[in-house]
Amino acid sequence: MNHDRLRFDLTDLAEEVTVVDLRDRSLRTSRRLGLQRAIATSAAAVVLLGAAAGTALAVRPDAGPGPVPAESPTASPSPVPSAPAPSVTPSRPAVPPDTSSPATPTARLGKVVYGPMPTTNLGTVRLWSWKPGDSPDRLLALPWEPAVLSATVSPDGRQVAWVDRDGTLWVSALDGSGKRKVREQTDSMCQTTWSPDSRHLTAAVAGEGAGLVDVVSGAYQKVDGLLGCHPVWAANGTLALADGGDGTVFLTDRRGSARRVIPGLGGEGSAYVCYDLASISPDGRHIALFRIARGNEGGDAARSLLANVVLDTRTGKEVVLPLGDRELRQVFFQADGSMVVRVRSGDRYTLLLVGEDGKKVAEQAEPPSLRDMQIINALG
Fold first, then answer.
1. What is the sign, positive or negative, of the torsion defined by CA atoms of 264, 269, 272, 276?
2. What is the CB-side half-sphere exposure of residue 170 using CA atoms within 13 A?
3. DSSP code of 12?
4. What is the Cα–Cα distance from 324 to 89, expressed in whole angstroms?
5. β-bridge mates for residue 153, sequence order
6. What DSSP designation does 265 have?
7. Terminus of the chain with fewer CB atoms < 10 Å: N or C?
8. Are 234 and 278 in contact (CB under 8 A)?
9. Measured between alpha carbons, how far is 277 from 298 in angstroms, rounded to an integer?
10. DSSP state letter for 61
């Protein structure tokens, strides 16, 4: 086992930087456009909502202290005492205090939920969950289209929601039990997203527009200002949506007010555009998305959960991640502000746990059986 680990580490060090190109994106776009045409009849009736460490976990902590506890309304990490002030002696000057980040005992790689990649239609498929240190668990079975286009897991990890091809919004437990119809005539192309309290879903309803659906009662509330696609919802209430028209990403709240855009995406003079959002930090300050250089646009209404960058939502600046010369594939923020970062080297996938301060806390190789799937949520 130690020999294998050493070999893998040396292999990683020897590998050259994997250039993220747009081949996968182009292939996916062509495929998704075909899919879009195939289900255009149902999609035309609505307005598009322009919206994975147990005790057995073998991790390799980075040298040095871990990340700062996240300031998130949904997480309460135990306080970490400050390092005592260094003593001062007459024989030498005082040693400056240690300003590096203290360890974060609550940051961990928890349960991760996977769904199928947007590849060839495979008929009925299953969602899977995996917690490092355990074997993958089978979850509910779904038709391929909703599994790819809309299946989403609630923040509390108890429910899965999806929209079938005729526009019916369904909710069930992760194992498929308790399946119930929530609402009809909802958009099946743009991703639904859960509210932080796991009580509402964003949706677009035929003849009504974009808004929120109560998953208990099915009641719908139209919200002006939520017209966008593939929304992601932060714990502090911030909603981000992609504008499918010009590649802009804007942020708002559940009332559709205080709207602002992320600098450098879409709009006149910008170098990049974006049509697909993956995850947003609990405080709304950082977002994981798929950014495309202007002139290489290939977006459409279908969902993609790939991410090739994390940006500061206020400045548009890129957040540097400790990838270790591996290709960034996906990023999902956890409730404590840490990130589950999926990277690829050749045909090997690895999950990194990255703290809110951008430092790697741990990493774990994925089981080979999950290689052809994509993460749809990281539950912590």
1. positive
2. 22
3. H
4. 41
5. 160
6. B
7. N
8. no
9. 14
10. P
Which pLDDT belongs to residue 171?
Answer: 98
What residue has token string 């990890």? Answer: 157
When mean pLDDT is compared over 43-52, 94-103, 146-155, 299-308, the highest value belongs to 146-155
State the pLDDT confidence band at 154, using cuts at 50, 70 and 90: very high
Q: Nearest 5°: CA angle at 138, between 182 and 43?
A: 35
User: pLDDT value at position 298?
Assistant: 62
Number of H-type helices and E-type strands within the chain: 4, 22
The arrangement of secondary structure in 2-67+104-378, i.e. its CATH architecture, is 6 Propeller (2.120)
How long is the chain? 380
| pLDDT tens-digit series, residues 96-138 | 333 334 444 466 888 999 999 887 677 899 999 999 989 999 9
Structure tokens at 302: 């279908």
CA–CA distance, 53 with 380 (Å, rounded to integer):
9
Closest CA to 263 of 205, 311, 333, 309: 311
- Say if residues 241 and 229 touch (Cβ distance below 8 Å): yes
Q: Tell me which residue of 164, 161, 166, 130 sits closest to 146, measured CA to CA.
A: 164
Q: How far apart are the first and last CA of the chain?
A: 27
Residue 68 has pLDDT above 60, yes or no: no
Looking at residue 292, what is its pLDDT? 94
- CA atoms lying within 13 Å on the CB side of residue 96: 3
Structure-token match 């008929």, residue found: 123
- Cα–Cα distance, 160 to 237 (Å, whole number): 20
Return the pLDDT at 160: 98
Please report, for the chain, the start and end positions of each structural domain, with discontinuous segments joined by +. 2-67+104-378
Beta bridge partners of 204: 210
Say yes or no to pLDDT of 29 above 50.
Answer: no
Q: Which of 265, 299, 281, 251 is nearest to 341 (CA)?
A: 281
